[in-house]
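As described in the Methods, two query proteins were run sequentially through the folding procedure within a single session, without resetting any intermediate state between them. The first query and its resulting structure tokens are shown here.
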Amino acid sequence: MLITVPCPCTLDQALLDIGRFTALPDCDAFGDHRCHYTQGAQHCVLSATSVWTGAGQTCCYDWDGWLMFSDDFEYNDQYLRFYSAGVPYR
């Protein structure tokens, strides 16, 4: 059975849900905030659990704090699939 956690509706909810989501290194409002792959986003979070393909679910938020984009990136096998939250460098 496929169990996925839906993206939090607002950025405030995503920041408080530290057990299920962590900041995406390439789009972090408190660090690297360029958001090169998600233009227009202020902050993106990555799910701590993966979907059936092994990829992580990504949720991105606009400058007003609302959910603007969510995807599991199953088509991109290099960008997020091997990201480990416990390892600072790839």
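Immediately afterward, the second query was submitted; its sequence and tokens are:
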Amino acid sequence: MGPVTGSRTAPPPSQQWATLNRVQQELLLATYVLDQAAEAHERDAWSDGRRRRPAEEWRWHRFGYVDAGPGAPPGKVRAALDATTRRSRRLLTAPAELADLGLVDQRLEEVPQGSERWWQPQVRLLSLRMTTRGRRVARTSGVDDRNAGRPPRGLVSQWLWEVIVELWRAGPGGVPADTRWSAWQYLEGRKTGPLIERVALTAQTASRWKYAVAGAPGWALNDAGRDHYRRHFATYARVYPAVRAPDPTGRLTWPGEVDKHLSALGSVAWSLRQRLDDVIARREELQRDGARHEAPRCPTDQTPPVSAEAAHREVLRAAADALDADHWRQRTALLAEHEPVLRALVRTSAARHAAAAIAAICACIAGHEPTSAVIAAEPLPLDHDGRPADLPVLTTGLPGIDAELATRRAAALAASPPAAQRRGRGRRQPPATPSLEPAAVELSVYAAHLADLVAGGQLQRLLLRTDQQTDAAAPTTA
């Protein structure tokens, strides 16, 4: 049975994306991700020694079986969805709705009768194929905001760009020739002229490599390679934002002190949370052992007479029990005294980490120097539950990153203590878990995400994608 297509009249891609419901958006994104993964796999066919297949063979992705009995296996598209979306009733009609909008094509295939219990006479196998319109609409969601794009004609792949960056950092001293043989072969044999030249490694360069010696053969950028780096740096930074390449103009230089400061704040917050977990776990253990440390039993007039040796052993045992009980009470009191102090430190460290990370993001978006703002950031104000009173709304202009930031901000603001677990009849008592600071944990997770986003100037390079003056490079391919 051939593909079933829908209408192709639709509003602009961004407007059409906004009109889709949550299940339709999740289904479209799942199909798009599978489509782009299949395209990348086919693009590397020749380099992997495979034959390139026609698009009709690999563009179709199985959604699953329709009108099947219980237990039918899901297809790749359905399996890629989260559990909430898979259980939604709207998912049954979402493929047809997307097809009517011209975002996907459908294909229903008959399933021959087999021994599977889920087989029914009316069962069909549904497959989906992204349309050009569907890919455009999916991209407006920002799904590719962090992904590497396809470079314009004449520029190199991400792997070769990483090699060029390494050569730029090495300078005239060069890089050992026995490290990346295939890269040297390509960069030297380019049709437009070589970008590298042979050099002899200097003593300073050889000291940075484990088995290199001074005078050994190496490679370095020639004049054409250095000019290529300078002229196309902005485009490479936009297409490959994950590569930490130094800006030859100095405009996109990200201070390493900021990353070190944020990393130190995150390490302190994590260490304090671990200490608090240990304290609460020990307190719970002492509470479980409290019944064993009762007051020692003293002999009375009704106690049966015993020998002098037995009475002496009883006295020693009672003294040891009393000592253990006193030690238990001291440890319990000490942990009870330290717990509120540690809780306050955990909250303060999370608030300080989040404030510094937010300052780094804001400075990067505004194009300001971030070091002074990050170091001078004061801890965020918290309420009595440890939740931040408010968090600024961060907007980068990249839809995917903005949506992720909004989701994580909402989680940090809405953090609440975990609900008590209900124990069913006949089940074992679950092990005691420390009573953590859920608000501080969510705030630290939010801060760590922001710190990872700006680390190494990644956000600076991502923001180049919003600059209309930069050489345009499509983030993905149709």
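Residues 256-296+318-415+436-470 form one domain. We note this only descriptively and draw no conclusion about the first query from it.
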